[in-house]
Structure formats: structure tokens, C-alpha cells
Design brief:
Number of domains: 3
Radius of gyration: 33 Å
CATH class of the largest domain: Mainly Beta
CATH superfamily of the largest domain: Immunoglobulins
Distance between the termini: 57 Å
Oligomer: single chain
Shape: elongated
CATH architecture of the largest domain: Sandwich
Number of helices: 2
């Protein structure tokens, strides 16, 4: 038989162990900025490759891309028209797939065979480190506008260097809960450093333990930026549980000749106060359980007519059931 207080003690011990383990694991497993500790370092490596399972599909069909030799992190895979000669303006960034590449340096991605401009089409993969690979694809029945011959190779969008992007995360209002989901706020600032208005900017945003993988965050509608103008967007970001340790919000700004990446790391502290309260309450729970066990033993002994040995009141015989003393042996007395 298990006492009610014993049933209380085990969940409390389990919560305490989980809280301490998560608090110790999160800072150790991830360094500042959310990059996994012990990840691959720079060195001489073969260029990453991109292969298609099918290189001839119909418009709207699914395309599967096989990635090999990529660095650890997030790789964006998208379908582009005009051979992607003008950068992301030729690519369908709204239907792009973001995949996480782990220590194996390989991953698969599936995207829809659509593009904002007419073919010749390619599938393009881009890592946050700048590594890029493309593979040609034929898309039958693609209904997209053709690019004028004079503009096919000339950049019709501003270069990536004209935009300054800064990101930081505001954790004000987040409390140290025991791994419960949290909501933080991303402050994303864009500044136009050119002498012309920058238009048609788009953002892709995600949040996760590191830039290797994450959950998508709804992006804002980015307004045109006049020369020298700077605008800051405040976006709510939901962090799924267990919300302990270091996280990163990351993404890219599209609409220029090359995507402009950004990353902001933030920490959600371990619930030290909750752990202290649980630790302080634990001895009380154990003491209550011990007293209940003693009362149960005395009740059983009284019902059986047993004599409780001295010292049981102090718990000297905790965990043992007293047995009644043996009955006296009758003696026959003969009379003369």
C-alpha cells in the first residue's frame, strides 16, 4: 500500500529533477547566440551540392531537393525563374522551404514548382553562411510573366549593401515559469543607406534553440523606405515549451540582389524561485508521509491485538509490520 503523501512526494521529486536538469542542460548544450557547442568549425570542405529527384515537373507539382555537404544551420530552398540572375526578385520566396542541416551535412527539402517570372527555371539553395547551389529544372505550364530581355541580367533591384538590418529581442514581461511557453518581442530595424527609395522588401523569420532549425514567425508587411529612412517593427514571438535556456530569432530580408540575414539571441532564465519553493516544501511532504505511515502501523497493530515495540513512535521500525507475540503454552497440572 502506498500512502497519499508518498504519491505527492514522487511528483515533487520528479519536477525538481526535471527543473534542475533543464537548467543545467540548456546553457551547456548551447553557447551564446544559440549555436550548438561542439559544432563543426571552419576548414577546407568541398562545395555544397543540390540535386533534384525530378528535373521535369508540371507547374504546382512538388519538387524534392537533396542537399549534401552543407554547413550546420538553416538552408533556404526556393524555385526561381530567369535562372535567378537578378537574385531573390526572380525567386518565389513566399513558398521557400527552410530546412535544418545537422552534423551529417545532408538534408532534404520539398518545394512547390512555382516562380514569379518565366523560365528558364532553377532551384536555388542558400545557407546563412552565404553558401549557394543551384540546379536547373523544367516546369511545364508555368504561367508567369516574362522578363524583358534588357533586364534579364541587369540588377533591377538595389544591391544588398544598401540595407542595414538590426534585430534584438525584448524579454520584458516574461516570468521564470517551469518550462511553460513564453512570448517575447522582436524589434526589427531596417535602414535605407542609399539615395533611392527601396521597395518590395519581404521578410522570413523563425525562432528556435539555434539557427539550425526553428518555428516560423509571421512576418510583417514591410513598407517602402525613403533614402536615409529607418523603421523599426515590433513583432510578438511565441517560444514553445520547455522555454528554458538560450534561443535565437533569425531570418532574412528579401527583395534585394541577395538576402540580408539577421540573428538575435536571448535567454529565458531557469525558474530558480520555483525550484527553491519546491525544495523547501519537500522535507515537509516527506515528514507528513512518515507520520502517516506510523499511524497506519499503529492502527493495524491495534486491530490485530499486537503490542507495538518501544521505539516505533520515533520511526525506529519504519517499514516493518509488528507481529503479535506467541500465545503461552498451556501446562497440565495433575492433582494427587
Amino acid at each position: 500500500m502506498t500512502s497519499r503523501s508518498g504519491r505527492w512526494a514522487r511528483p515533487v521529486l520528479l519536477l525538481l529533477a526535471v527543473g534542475l536538469g533543464a537548467a543545467a542542460w540548456a546553457p551547456a548544450a548551447f553557447g551564446q547566440g544559440g549555436v550548438p557547442v561542439g559544432g563543426t568549425t571552419g576548414g577546407t570542405q568541398a562545395p555544397p551540392t543540390l540535386q533534384l529527384v525530378l528535373d521535369r515537373v508540371g507547374a504546382g507539382d512538388r519538387l524534392t531537393a537533396l542537399l549534401h555537404g552543407w554547413p550546420i544551420g538553416t538552408v533556404r530552398v526556393e524555385v526561381c525563374g530567369n535562372r535567378a540572375l537578378r537574385g531573390s526578385v526572380d525567386c518565389d520566396v513566399t513558398r521557400a522551404a527552410a530546412v535544418a542541416v545537422g552534423p551529417s551535412s545532408a538534408a532534404n527539402a520539398t518545394v512547390a514548382a512555382t516562380a514569379p517570372v518565366a523560365c528558364p527555371c532553377v532551384v536555388r539553395a542558400t545557407a546563412l553562411t552565404g553558401a549557394t547551389a543551384i540546379a536547373p529544372v523544367e516546369i511545364a505550364g508555368l504561367d508567369a510573366p516574362a522578363v524583358p530581355s534588357l533586364d534579364r541580367s541587369a540588377p533591377s533591384v538595389p544591391p544588398a549593401g544598401v540595407l542595414t538590418v538590426r534585430a534584438r529581442v525584448d524579454t520584458a514581461g516574461t516570468g521564470p515559469a517551469l518550462g511553460q511557453p513564453q512570448r517575447v518581442r522582436l524589434l526589427l530595424s531596417l535602414r535605407n543607406d542609399s539615395s533611392a527609395t527601396v521597395r518590395d522588401l519581404r521578410a522570413t523569420i523563425a525562432v528556435g534553440r539555434s539557427v539550425a532549425s526553428g518555428s516560423p514567425v509571421p512576418p510583417p508587411d514591410l513598407d517602402p523606405l525613403a533614402p536615409g529612412e529607418e523603421r523599426t517593427y515590433a513583432l510578438p514571438v511565441d517560444v514553445a515549451g520547455p522555454a528554458l535556456g538560450t534561443f535565437a530569432v533569425f531570418g532574412e530580408i528579401h527583395g534585394l540582389t541577395a538576402p540580408v540575414p539577421f540573428t538575435a539571441s536571448f535567454d529565458l532564465p531557469a525558474p530558480v524561485g520555483t525550484i527553491v519553493v519546491v525544495g523547501a516544501a519537500l522535507p515537509v511532504v516527506i515528514a507528513l508521509g512518515r507520520r502517516r505511515r506510523q499511524r497506519r502501523r499503529f492502527l493495524i497493530a491495534a486491530l490485530d491485538g499486537a503490542v507495538v515495540p518501544a521505539g516505533d513512535h520515533a520511526g525506529d521500525h519504519a517499514g516493518t509490520d509488528p507481529t503479535p507475540p506467541p500465545a503461552p503454552t498451556p501446562v497440565l497440572v495433575e492433582s494427587s
